[in-house]
Write a structure and sequence with these properties.
Cytochrome Bc1 Complex, Chain D, domain 2, 321 residues, binds heme C
Length: 321
């Protein structure tokens, strides 16, 4: 008893240390704010393609990577397997076959799916999510989950998540969130940025440059009939701006920001005010209150217009959420 009495303070210190740890360790572990962000989290250990075994499973994963990098070669308008997509490659938006940090990578797919997604209002599998991009971003026809192509893409994406524990989102996953502008994003200012920083590759009319051998785009289209549809993620300004801010111009120094957030929002507003394939999905956002602030098609639970949801200003809107 004498012993317990003189050492009670050790217990007290332990309680204080644990309480301090709970308070001080940030609850946003694993979130990101772009390259160089101070927020810590799990680093993604990308598995090594060169160490894939020469087995049927290894071959399937290699085929999956090839499909992601050269989608048009297999599935595009003159594809060798089928003609079910618009000529873009998954890699045009999921850079380096889906492994680049902040380049819309696949690090958290295997660890977080199946999961509930508000857009469909259902629990979605990886197959469903891949087909979402095929139908919306590639303006295509869904792949059968039993096809060798879907099995390969699935195997590749799962293998990329090999070192990521369940429910963990490594640093740099997906598309970064960037600072919201106070004012509405401005397509007129965005057009100037497009001419100065984008058109030399994506062409003045946004149509990009298709390879002479039809194997895909050297520079993918930003709008027009061969580009992503109005049902695609990049049609939302926040997705487009977050993607572009950290990845474009494509030849930029990746350790430096070449676009300010404001420029990224404005160029997003310009590009997404140009014509593109209109594709709406009747079942989208069954609960209208779950629509993202920048989703450009009503009805909404608030009274802001489609125009304001699309281009902002968003600050007043977000205060009501
Ligand atoms: C035009 C651009 C574009 C193309 C092309 C594209 N995607 Fe996507 N993809 C996106 C965007 C945008 C998201 C949503 C990212 C976000 O909101 O963080 C996304 C999300 C995904 C996700 C879910 C990622 C996650 O972490 O939840 C998967 C899986 C995916 N795409 C697979 C594919 C595959 C496979 C292809 C090719 C068949 C493809 N995508 C082509 C733009 C594209
Ligand atoms: C040096 C050439 C170059 C410049 C300049 C450039 N891009 Fe790109 N962009 C590319 C390439 C190449 C890809 C596809 C990357 C891949 O497949 O690996 C791409 C992909 C994209 C994509 C996703 C695919 C699509 O077509 O929708 C968007 C969006 C995009 N760029 C927007 C922009 C914007 C906005 C600018 C100007 C701020 C810009 N790019 C400047 C070369 C460029």
């Amino acid at each position: 008893m004498q012993f317990l009495k003189s050492y009670w303070w050790i217990g007290l210190i332990m309680i204080i240390v644990v309480a301090a740890a709970i308070i001080l360790i940030p609850s946003d572990l694993g979130k990101y704010n772009g390259p160089g962000s101070k927020i810590s989290g799990t680093e993604w250990i990308i598995p090594d393609m060169n160490r894939l075994p020469a087995t049927p499973e290894g071959d399937l994963i290699r085929y999956g990577k090839a499909l992601v990098s050269n989608t048009a070669f297999y599935l595009g308008p003159k594809g060798t397997v089928a003609h079910i997509t618009n000529g873009m490659n998954c890699q045009n938006c999921h850079l380096d076959a889906g492994i680049r940090l902040y380049g819309n990578n696949y690090s958290a797919v295997a660890s977080t799916y199946p999961k509930f997604r508000a857009r469909s209002g259902t629990i979605e599998t990886i197959f469903k999510r891949v087909n979402d991009c095929i139908e919306r971003s590639l303006n295509g026809t869904a792949l059968d989950s039993n096809s060798r192509e879907m099995k390969a893409i699935y195997a590749y994406i799962c293998w990329l998540g090999t070192n990521v524990p369940k429910n963990v989102k490594p640093i740099g996953t997906g598309i970064a969130e960037i600072t919201l502008p106070q004012d509405a994003a401005d397509p007129v200012a965005g057009k100037l940025i497009f001419s100065a920083k984008c058109s030399k590759c994506h062409a003045a009319d946004g149509s990009g440059l298709f390879n002479a051998d039809s194997s895909g785009y050297t520079y993918p289209p930003l709008w027009g009939i061969h580009s992503f549809t109005t049902g695609a993620g990049l049609y939302r300004l926040s997705r487009f701006a977050g993607y572009v801010k950290f990845n474009m111009p494509f030849d930029k120094d990746l350790t430096k920001d070449t676009l300010t957030s404001e420029e990224a929002w404005n160029v997003a507003a310009f590009v997404n005010s140009q014509p593109r394939p209109d594709k709406r999905f009747a079942g989208d956002w069954p609960d209208v209150s779950s629509k993202p602030f920048d989703y450009p098609f009503g009805p909404y639970k608030d009274s802001f217009s489609e125009q304001q949801h699309k281009y902002g200003p968003w600050t007043a809107m977000l205060k009501q959420r």
